[in-house]
Structures are given as structure tokens and as C-alpha cells.
What we know:
Oligomer: single chain
Number of helices: 9
Bound molecules: pyridoxal-5'-phosphate
Amino acid sequence: xxxxxxxxxxxxxxxxxxxxLVVIDRARAGARGEGPGWHVAxxxxxxxxxxxxxxxxxxxxxxxxxxxxxxxxxLEPHLRRLARSAALLDLPDxxxxxxxxxxxASAAAHAPVPFALTKLIVTRGLxxxxxxxxxxxxxxxxxxxxxxxxxxxxxxxxLDRGYRHDVAQTSPWLLQGAKxxxxxxxxxxxxxxxxxxxxxxxxxxxDGYALEGPSASLVARFGDRFVTPRTDQGILEGTTxxxxxxxxxxxxxETAYELLPLARVHEADALWLLSSGRQIAPVxxxxxxxxxxxxxLTTSLVEALWARRD
Length: 310
Ligand code: PLP
């Protein structure tokens, strides 16, 4: 993440607004004690211990909440996913009420902007400290507008993730399907995409099923039917994809969760990658094949997302 903190002086026409950091004092369920359980910290100061397992091992989990005109999107689905990730990593049960308060406080304290992102991080705590409390914070910062990608689409390449589609059942210790802090691979594949002249990636299982992007869910349109890969394949349950499916159902379209062989995705009428940050990005090209962009539908779905207040 870029360091906006360096420009964190009062808002001007040129300087981005300062990020807001809310540190959660004790994120473990039942450990809150007296007081609010969180405090606002100086986002320009270092706050993480160098022996934090989130830093030394990438051992922790996170969520990224879109904030539209000050309203946190899909708050409860994100919190449910956080709890699922915590369970997969054998982290302690988390105080979700406290975490909700911290996320809302961080977003509310940010200067008004059309779009911001609140990142909620929970790590296993400090290395070498028995029964260490998890380290947790929520940090909100302004998020760049992706209007050009919504308009022009993105070029995507399919890359083998190296696991079968049933990895979550056969090898749950690989943590596929948890939103962990170990995103080095999710970033590495973007560099590989760039080397191949593309903007983003669609992960494919070693047995040929389309999965998800490194930070996005896939939705494919086949006629009037919209399909996303089944979420029991070691992929995340996308909060944006779920909200888009609600919007599509409201528009009278059929939606489904299915196993999608990559060859079938290549036959789709249209494709989108969906995520809390970029929201909706139509795919203009997959593996060198052009895909039509449905501008009207993309606009309707973005408007539906931004109108949601849940
Ligand atoms: N899949 C992965 C691997 C992600 O990292 C993300 C979000 O960052 C998504 C899917 C999309 O999830 P959401 O729409 O909840 O942001």
C-alpha cells in the first residue's frame, strides 16, 4: 500500500486526506475489559512490533472494506468472512462487535471522500510470546478511482494456481479460502501478468477449473445467466460478487454458483472481476481473446453497489 502518511497534513486541493488508524487493544473474544477497547493512533508513526507474526511470517488475516460516501459496504459479510478465516487459521475467537466498532470508527473519522478503503488486519500476535494477544488495527485511506477500468475493461491472463479444485477438502492446512496476510503469491502473479502484457489474473486449478483473481471474484455471463465459480474450491466468498448477484436478481437475471472449466469461461458472453476496492472491472480480453464490454449493465451494477447501505 502506498504511504499516504508522508502527505498526511491537512487536506488541500492537492494533498490526499490523511489516513485514519484505529488500533484494537484486545481483539480476542471476551478480552475487551473496561473502556472502548480501541483507540485512534497516529497513522504517520510506526505501530507494529518487529517480532509481530504478521510481519515475520505473514501469519494473520485481513479484510478490505469499501467505503462509499462514508458508508462501509458489506460490513456483516466481511465480518463473517473474517471469522471464517480466523477459524481456518486456528486463531482465537475474535470480538466481532469490537472489530465492527473499530472499522466503523476508522471510516467515520476519515475526511469525506467519494471512495475510501478500510483495511482490517488481525495477526497471531508476537513471536516467542506465549498466549500473545492478536495484533489488530483498522486503517482507512482514500482509494483511487477505477473509472477508466470500468469503462475500458481489463486484460486478464489465466494462470495455474497449482492446486486441484478440491484442495480445501483434501488439504485444509493449505488455508486456501482464508483471507490470509500471505499475499506474496497474489502480488507475484500480477508481475507475471504484466510480463505477459495483461493487467490482472484469473487463477485456474491444476485440474482446469476457473477460480478467482488474486484479489477479485469472477462472474461470467452466458446469455441471461450469470455464473460465479463455486466457493467450495478454496476461494473466497466475494462480498462484492454476492451484492452484484443480488442486483442481478433484482434486474430479473438468473445467477448460479458452479464449477467452471476454463474452456467454458472462454465461451462466455462477458466477464467481470469484482472486489471491494476496484468494485467492478469488465474483462476486455482473456488469454488473448477479446470480450465485449456491456457498459450499460456494468454501470447499473456499479450504481446498485454504491446505493447499498448494509
Ligand atoms: N478473492 C480474493 C483472493 C480476494 O483477495 C478478494 C478481495 O480482496 C476477493 C476475491 C473479492 O472479495 P470482496 O468482493 O469481498 O472484496
